[in-house]
C-alpha cells in the first residue's frame, strides 16, 4: 500500500496536535518548501501528547529544514539541546522555537524527569534526534523510546528524505517494555530514508 502524499501545509496536521497561530512566517516557509519540491508522505499520528523521533541527522541543514517544516505546518514543538547552545547568540531563537536546555553530564534520572514533565502537560509534541550526534554512530540512543514508555504516550518515526524531498511520517510505537524491539523498528524505518550525507548515517552495526 502506497502512503498518501500531501503538500506541506497546516491542513494536513490532525486536530489534537499542539499548534502555532498562522503567521506570515508560516506562509513564507510553506511557499519555500513548495518551491524546492518538498512534500509530505504518510499521516501524522493524532495525539495531544506525542514523541517524534526525527532522523537522519547528518548536517546542520537538518535543523534549518526542520524549522521551515514546523512553521509551515504550524507545529508547536518542544526539543532538548545542549545547554551551551542556549548561551550562544542564537539562544533566544532556540528558546522561542521550543528548545529546552539540558546538561548532558546530568544524564542520570533525565529520562524520568522529562517523562514527569510530560505527564504534567495537557499537550506536548516532543521532537528528539535519536542519533544524538551528526557523526556516524551505532547503536542510537534509546532515550526517545524510554521517554515515550515512561510517559505512557505514543512515539512516531519522522524522516527527512533528501533524495525524494519527502517528510515521511512513519510507524507509530505504543508504549512497551520491549525497548530493544522498538529500536529495531526505528532502524528498519530509517534504513530507507536518504540522509543529506548518507555516509554519516548508520542504522546497522558497522562491519569489522
From TrEMBL:
Residues annotated as transmembrane: none
Associated pathway: Lipid metabolism
Stored Pfam families: Acyltransferase (PF01553)
InterPro entries reported in the protein's UniProt record: Plipid/glycerol_acylTrfase
Domain named Phospholipid/glycerol acyltransferase: residues: 51-163
GO biological process: phosphatidic acid biosynthetic process
Keywords: Acyltransferase, Transferase
GO MF annotations in UniProt: 1-acylglycerol-3-phosphate O-acyltransferase activity
Highest taxon above the source species: Bacteria
Protein name in UniProt: Acyltransferase
Amino acid at each position: 500500500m502506497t502512503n498518501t502524499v500531501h503538500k506541506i501545509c497546516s491542513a494536513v496536521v490532525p486536530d489534537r496536535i499542539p499548534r502555532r497561530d498562522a503567521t506570515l512566517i508560516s506562509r513564507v516557509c510553506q511557499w519555500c518548501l513548495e518551491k524546492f519540491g518538498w512534500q509530505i508522505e504518510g499521516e501524522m499520528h493524532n495525539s495531544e501528547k506525542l514523541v517524534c523521533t526525527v532522523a537522519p541527522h547528518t548536517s546542520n541543514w537538518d535543523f534549518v529544514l526542520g524549522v521551515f517544516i514546523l512553521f509551515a505546518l504550524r507545529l508547536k514543538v518542544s526539543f532538548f539541546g545542549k545547554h551551551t547552545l542556549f548561551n550562544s547568540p542564537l539562544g533566544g531563537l532556540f528558546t522561542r522555537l521550543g528548545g529546552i536546555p539540558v546538561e548532558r553530564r546530568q544524564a542520570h534520572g533525565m529520562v524520568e524527569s522529562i517523562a514527569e514533565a510530560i505527564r504534567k502537560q495537557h499537550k506536548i509534541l516532543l521532537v528528539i534526534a535519536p542519533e544524538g550526534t551528526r557523526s556516524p554512530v551505532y547503536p542510537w540512543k534509546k532515550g526517545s523510546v524510554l521517554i515515550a514508555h515512561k510517559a505512557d504516550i505514543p512515539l512516531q518515526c519522522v524522516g527527512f528524505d533528501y533524495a525524494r524531498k519527502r517528510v515521511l511520517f512513519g510507524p507509530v510505537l505504543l508504549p512497551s517494555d520491549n525497548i530493544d524491539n522498538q529500536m529495531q523498528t526505528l532502524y528498519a524505518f530509517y534504513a530507507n530514508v536518504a540522509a543529506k550525507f548518507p555516509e554519516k548515517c548508520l542504522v546497522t552495526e558497522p562491519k569489522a
